[in-house]
Every structure is written in structure tokens, then in C-alpha cells.
Design goal:
single chain, 306 residues, 6-stranded parallel beta sheet, 10 helices, disordered N terminus
């Protein structure tokens, strides 16, 4: 495979996955990106791969041979698959020399996430984990601004969805891994990806269960600040929402709104292209994805024991 790094040629990105996330966000963003050639779509179901590929003017692949063929014709892959399906395919892609644009969480086991990080490092490929708030222009700028400020004392993060509330018609509610793992794993990476760069790494963690799939975290950070986090996918619709508030010596700061996942995903594509071009790892790379999995496993273990 020929790398596009150091050239003006479009970055050839193959898409692995054909579910709602691939259809609604990844495929449209990749097909519309001026610096990207959508080199193909792979899916476990041939019909779904054919339909999505045709909608974006590219080629469909399926089966084991299809994975190998898509990797051969791609500089990078974007993965829109359940985490524990994503991880081994990301390892294969890295070993084939393809850069990685992964969804969060990278995997739900430390071993799975570590395998991805080690494969990316061994093959010297760039990697980006799509934690939405780190790539949406509004929120990424806010995070950088707050990370440059000293004296934060505490923070409160709340990410409550109503995916599994009575009457929900969300197409993402059919995702088996989300139903099994809950809000901790689905939206926990987003909250942690904001708190860690601002307050420092997590040096102590306490977790407890709340109603339905809700999980509460208490975190102590290396800066000395503490934070509380509430995560869930089963809140009543009227109670759902996202809030992150910081408090410190200069007062309070609240996370701004952002313009949807599509714009943020385009930002992640730009970040991957920059890492490919410069060879400088992005802060949200596979190694960071491994660390998120380590924290989430620790939280899940505590919550279950409690």
C-alpha cells in the first residue's frame, strides 16, 4: 500500500461498517471531504455494503477477501463497528499499513485496546479515536482554552441520553453492545476526553450504579482537582442533556453547544490527515483510546462490585 503522506493526493479512506453511524455520519462526511477519496465500503451483509457504496459513488466489499482487498486499496480506514469487532479489524488494518480512524471506545477489554495501540505503534501508522467533543470546532476550542487556565478546583459532567427511555424510536437503540454496556461505555469516553486534558489524568476513581444503566463517577485528577460524572442512556426525555461545568479560581466555565456529529467527524478526518502528514501523534490516538478503556474497565468493575 502506498502512503499518501507527503503528497497532495487525496487520502484514500476505506469505511468498515454499514450501520446507522456509518450511514448517517461517516460515509457522508468522507464522501464530501475534499481531501479524501472514499476508497470503498465493507460490510458483513453484501446488500448493505452495496447500498451504502452506491449512495456515495464507491465500491462495495464483503467477506474476508473483501477486507483484504479494501485494505490493499486504502491509505487509511474509518471504522463504524461495535468496539470488540472494531479492535481486531483495526489491528489487521494497522498491520497492513493503514492509518486508523476509530470510534470510541476502541474496545471494551484492556487486552483488545492494547493490541490496537501496540499494532499502530509497531506499524508506525497514525491513529485517531473519534471523541466528538475533541473535534467539534466549538468544543475543541473551549477545551484548549480551559486547559490553558490554572486553578481549576472541581468539575461536574453530566451526559444523559434517552436512547432506552419509554417511547424512544432511535435507530441506535438496536445496538446490542450499547444495550449491554450502557452509558458508561457509550458516552463515558466523551466526558473523560474533556476532563482529562483540562484537569489532568485520573489518579483515583470511584464508581457506583444509579437508576437503569446510569453510572456515577467521582474522579481525582493529577492537578489536584476533582470531578463528578453522571452517565446514562435511559433518562426520561425531559431529563436528557449534556452539561460540563468547571469551577475554579477564575469562576466557572460551561461547555458550549456544537454543530452535530458530521462537522466533528470531518474535524477528526482533518486530524488524522495532519498526523499522517507530520508524523506527530494526535492527543486522541490509539494510546489514549487504550487509557480510556482502562478507566472504563476500572469503573465498570467497581460499579458491579458495589
Amino acid at each position: 500500500m502506498d502512503s499518501a503522506a507527503g503528497t497532495t493526493a487525496p487520502l484514500r479512506i476505506g469505511l468498515l461498517g454499514t450501520g446507522p453511524w456509518a450511514r448517517n455520519t461517516q460515509a457522508p462526511a468522507l464522501a464530501a471531504h475534499p481531501g479524501v477519496e472514499l476508497s470503498g465500503v465493507w460490510g458483513r451483509r453484501a446488500e448493505a455494503a452495496d447500498t451504502l457504496a452506491a449512495a456515495h459513488g464507491t465500491r462495495a466489499y464483503t467477506g474476508e477477501a473483501g477486507i483484504e482487498a479494501l485494505l490493499e486499496t486504502s491509505d487509511a480506514v474509518a471504522l463504524a463497528l461495535p468496539p470488540d469487532v472494531q479492535a481486531p479489524l483495526a489491528v489487521r488494518a494497522a498491520e497492513a499499513g493503514c492509518h486508523l480512524l476509530m470510534d470510541k471506545p476502541v474496545a471494551t477489554t484492556v487486552a483488545g485496546a492494547r493490541a490496537v495501540a501496540e499494532a499502530a505503534e509497531k506499524s508506525a501508522v497514525a491513529s485517531v479515536v473519534f471523541c466528538t467533543l475533541r473535534f467539534a470546532p466549538e468544543t475543541s476550542a473551549w477545551i484548549a482554552e480551559q486547559a490553558a487556565v490554572d486553578g481549576w478546583f472541581t468539575a461536574r459532567a453530566q451526559w444523559l441520553g434517552s436512547l432506552y427511555a419509554e417511547g424512544s424510536a432511535s435507530q441506535y437503540a438496536d445496538s446490542p453492545w450499547r444495550r449491554e454496556k450502557g452509558g458508561l461505555w457509550d458516552v463515558g469516553p466523551h466526558a473523560l476526553s474533556v476532563l482529562i486534558p483540562v484537569l489532568g489524568d485520573v489518579e483515583h476513581l470511584t464508581a457506583a450504579r444509579g437508576p437503569a444503566d446510569t453510572t456515577h463517577l467521582i474522579l481525582r485528577h493529577t492537578s489536584g482537582a476533582s470531578s463528578t460524572v453522571t452517565l446514562g442512556l435511559s433518562a426520561p426525555p425531559a431529563a436528557a442533556g449534556v452539561e460540563i461545568e468547571l469551577r475554579g479560581e477564575r469562576g466557572t466555565a460551561s461547555l458550549p453547544g456544537w454543530d452535530g456529529a458530521g462537522t466533528a467527524f470531518r474535524g477528526a478526518v482533518d486530524a488524522l490527515a495532519e498526523a499522517v502528514r507530520t508524523g506527530v501523534p494526535h492527543a486522541c490516538d490509539a494510546r489514549f483510546g487504550l487509557h480510556l478503556t482502562e478507566l472504563l474497565v476500572a469503573a465498570e468493575t467497581q460499579a458491579q462490585a458495589g
